[in-house]
Design a protein that fits this description.
Layout: E1 2-12, H1 18-33, E2 39-42, H2 70-84, E3 87-97, E4 100-108, E5 114-118, H3 124-128, E6 141-143, E7 146-150, H4 159-167, E8 172-176, H5 182-199, E9 202-206, E10 208-210, E11 226-228, E12 240-243, E13 250-257, H6 258-267
Parallel strand pairs: 1-2, 1-10, 2-3, 7-8, 8-9
Antiparallel strand pairs: 1-13, 3-4, 4-5, 6-7, 9-11, 11-12
Length: about 280
C-alpha cells in the first residue's frame, strides 16, 4: 500500500485578518492537491501568524490571545478536509486546557473527525517565555492508509517516544516543526533521520519560513521540509525521498510505500526493529 504526502514550508508574514490566513492555508492545500496528495502537513506554530493581526485598539496580540482563534482554526480545517477529501495535519495550534496553554497538533479527517496530539516535550522557551504545559500521552491515529503518529519538533529528539509510536503500530511519523536557527533545525533534522533508521519508519518533517516582525519569538525562522526513509537498499541514498530548498516558500511531495517498510524490517541489510535487545533494555511499548 502507498500513500502520497505533501509537506508545506509555510511562509510567515504579517496579515490583516483571519481571512488572509485562511486564504494562504487553502492556497497551499490546492497546490498540494494538484499532485493528488492524500496527507498534507503544515508546520508547528504556523498559527502564530494570527498574532500579527492588530487587536481592537491597535495593540499587539500575545501568545495568550492565540486560543481565541481555536474555533475558527478548527472550523477552517474541518471544512477544507471535507471539501477536498484529504487528511490534513494542520501543524500545531496553541489551545487552553484548564487555564494552561498547550501546543497541540491537529489531524483533520475527510469525514470531519478531528484528532489531537499535545506536544509531549516542551522547550525552555515554551516554558519560560510562553508558559506552556506539556502533554501527558501519546495518541496513534487510525487512517484508511494505516496508523500514523504526530510528534512535534522537540518530541522527535527523544528516542523513547518514537519507539512507543512504532510499537503501537505507527508506520509514518508526521513531525511539524518550528526552528529559528541552523542549530535548532539540524537537531530536529538529524534526529528525524535517526528515528527513521532505529524504527524503520517514515518521517515527514516540515518547518516555518519567513518572519513575523511583531510577534515575539517568531521573528526568525529556519526551515526545510523533508520526507525521510530508513537507510537501506530499497530506499534512496541518504534516506531522502524529497526535501525542499532551505527557507523558501514551497512544498514537497512523495509516495510512501508501506510494503517496503515491511520488507526491510524482515529482510533488510539491517533489521533494527527486530534486533532490539529487550532482554537488556526496556521496550517502550
Amino acid at each position: 500500500m502507498k500513500l502520497r504526502v505533501s509537506a508545506i514550508q509555510y511562509h510567515l508574514h504579517t496579515i490583516d485578518s483571519f481571512e488572509d490566513f485562511a486564504l494562504q492555508c487553502e492556497h497551499y492545500l490546492k497546490a498540494a492537491l494538484e499532485f493528488d496528495t492524500e496527507f498534507v502537513l503544515y508546520p508547528e506554530f504556523f498559527t502564530t501568524q494570527l498574532l500579527s493581526i492588530k487587536g481592537e485598539n491597535g495593540e499587539a496580540l500575545t501568545i495568550n490571545d492565540l486560543p481565541t482563534f481555536t474555533e475558527q482554526y478548527r472550523n477552517l480545517f474541518t471544512t477544507l478536509a471535507k471539501k477536498y477529501n484529504v487528511h490534513i495535519i494542520a501543524g500545531t495550534h496553541v489551545i487552553e486546557v484548564e487555564g494552561k496553554l498547550r501546543n497541540t497538533a491537529h489531524l483533520f479527517y475527510p469525514d470531519g473527525k478531528i484528532g489531537t496530539q499535545d506536544k509531549i516535550h516542551i522547550t525552555p522557551t515554551e516554558v519560560n517565555e510562553w508558559n506552556m504545559s506539556r502533554g501527558d500521552g501519546l495518541n496513534i491515529f487510525e487512517t484508511d492508509k494505516g496508523k500514523i503518529a504526530i510528534l512535534t519538533c522537540y518530541d522527535i529528539e527523544f528516542p523513547e517516544i518514537v519507539r512507543m509510536a512504532k510499537a503501537r503500530g505507527a508506520d509514518v511519523i508526521f513531525c511539524p516543526s518550528c526552528t529559528d536557527d541552523r542549530h535548532g533545525f539540524h537537531r530536529v533534522r538529524y534526529t528525524s533521520h535517526a528515528r527513521a533508521i532505529e524504527n524503520q519508519v517514515y518521517v515527514v518533517l516540515t518547518g516555518t519560513v519567513g518572519a513575523l516582525p511583531t510577534v515575539d519569538f517568531m521573528r526568525a525562522n529556519f526551515g526545510q521540509a523533508a520526507i525521510i526513509t530508513p537507510n537501506d537498499v530499497p530506499f534512496p541514498p541518504k534516506g531522502l525521498l524529497a526535501e525542499g530548498e532551505i527557507n523558501n516558500d514551497m512544498l514537497v511531495t512523495a509516495d510512501l510505500d508501506l510494503e517496503l517498510l515491511y520488507k526491510v524490517r524482515e529482510k533488510g541489510s539491517v533489521t533494527t526493529w527486530r534486533d532490539r535487545r529487550v532482554d537488556l533494555y526496556t521496550d517502550w511499548e
